[in-house]
Amino acid sequence: MDNPTSLDELIRALRCLPGVGPKSAQRMAYHLLQRDHEGAKRLADGLNLALDRIRHCGKCNTFTEAEMCERCASVRRDPSMLCVVESPGDLLMLEQTQSYPGHYFVLMGRLSPLDGIGPREIHLDRLLKRATDGVVREVILATNFTVEGEATAHYVSELLVGHGLTVTRIARGLPVGGELEHVDSGTLAQALLERRPA
Amino acid sequence: MDNPTSLDELIRALRCLPGVGPKSAQRMAYHLLQRDHEGAKRLADGLNLALDRIRHCGKCNTFTEAEMCERCASVRRDPSMLCVVESPGDLLMLEQTQSYPGHYFVLMGRLSPLDGIGPREIHLDRLLKRATDGVVREVILATNFTVEGEATAHYVSELLVGHGLTVTRIARGLPVGGELEHVDSGTLAQALLERRPA
Questions:
Q1: Residues in CB range of A63: below 8 A, 6 or more apart
Q2: In this predicted complex, what is the ipTM?
Q3: Mutation to test the B interface, candidates A6, A37, A110, A112, most B Cβ within 10 Å
């Protein structure tokens, strides 16, 4: 005398979403079935459409509906710069700064041996090939400053050694508008360590 | 040069889930497309199946695949007791206590005028009819002890006045194993107010 079968199945299926546990999944299922049939239908259709259409760009590995994404196909971008990011979301954040003119490579993850994510899962073979195409001069590592992101950046920089490339890492330090009083000590120590001529 | 169209549509569709904002929706979409195609397919199918199969029990209003849910159809339950809850999840919680032998009525919500949820949306007309069927003797209000839940309980008890029913509210107080030192003062005040003969 639990939930009806199809409802239980939906609750189980919702748990494939990251950050959704049994309680949230149940709440989501109830919400959809009680208040938002239309949203549920749209979500089912959206999932099927995206599964059908979305593939990876042959060049930068981000999500696209074409063989190659618009960004890689653009002739306005500087082909000598290649920025390595973890996810398409990070790419969009960088694009929003409107201050990076080059190309990207999206790892679609980060090294995380405990989760079974090694060099192959984040396509480092393809990155190596892409970075050593003879046109790229600088590779900018823009993975996150988490343990996994740092490890990934380190691994990639080792990988690219000896190919005549400049490999850089985006800067750590205080945020713009940041006050010393309100920043964590790790960031402050790093900002001190990586000080530059004023 | 944003996300591809079908990906954007999926992200928008995911936002129909309660508690999912733009950032989470993006993260969910990336995760499904990158790491869990199978989960995404299962979710799409689960949504469609549940939309197709799930309806409301004609008697207690909970989710069911039949005309009437197993619980309402059971002859082992005490037909003189009717417990009013906000959601099927609350019903399952009460069932897990294995201490309630009666029937239920599921409001599928709570009074919340700001969200456009009035007496009609939580089926109070049907509850009135169900509670005054001549068999029910006691109505137990088991809505949450939130502002909306309390308002709903108050409204329902007013609605049932003059029909010869005993209307009760589940008790507030310290949790089992609770220590005075660690309970919030509102709960403690209420436990004091609602003290009973030892």
A1: A54, A55, A56, A57, A69, A88, B3, B4, B7, B30, B33
A2: 0.78
A3: A6
